[in-house]
């Protein structure tokens, strides 16, 4: 394989990786928009359900307003948590796409190095280096993605806990 053929293959690989990254980014954005729309509709439905529940239970106007407000606040927190999770998923998707691009570039470099090998030992050494580098990249990115996942989950839990604590405080002071 000549150097120009290798360069064309590397350019084609980079182009494919770039297109994959753009597609992944668009998919993540579409998912985030759909989640926001769904949470908005769920909030609206929760308010309507709370109003119907209040009428059925015969709550006073003040009590109805309070229950409806609590339902809206709960749905708002759920929407915020959903937003946090979607943002986290987008970050994770971007990280995987970045990994794919970098892995592709390293593979092209590794193949180029193997093609320039002058002996079988050089070829084996280049192949071993390429595999070692790929594994190191994969493991490092996996650690970063795990950290992003944990941070996202912790942020969502923190929001839920803050809402639960606020509701408990309000119940103690309102009772």
From TrEMBL:
Pfam families with a match to the protein in the record: Phasin_2 (PF09361)
Stretches for region Disordered: 1-28
Amino acid composition bias (Basic and acidic residues), ranges on this chain: 1-11
Domain (Phasin) ranges: 66-163
Domain of life of the organism encoding this protein: Bacteria
Protein name per its UniProtKB record: Phasin domain-containing protein
């Amino acid at each position: 394989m000549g150097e120009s053929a290798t360069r064309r293959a590397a350019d084609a690989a980079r182009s494919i990786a770039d297109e994959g990254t753009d597609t992944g980014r668009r998919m993540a954005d579409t998912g985030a928009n759909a989640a926001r729309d769904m949470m908005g509709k769920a909030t609206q439905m929760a308010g309507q359900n709370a109003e119907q529940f209040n009428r059925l239970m015969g709550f006073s106007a003040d009590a109805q307003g309070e229950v409806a407000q609590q339902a809206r606040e709960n749905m708002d927190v759920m929407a915020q948590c959903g937003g946090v999770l979607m943002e986290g998923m987008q970050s994770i998707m971007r990280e995987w796409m970045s990994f794919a691009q970098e892995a592709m570039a390293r593979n092209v470099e590794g193949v180029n190095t193997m093609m320039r090998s002058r002996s079988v030992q050089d070829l084996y050494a280049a192949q071993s280096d390429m595999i070692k580098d790929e594994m190191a990249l994969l493991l490092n990115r996996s650690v970063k993605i795990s950290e992003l996942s944990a941070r996202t989950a912790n942020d969502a839990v923190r929001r839920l806990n803050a809402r639960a604590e606020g509701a408990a405080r309000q119940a103690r002071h309102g009772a």
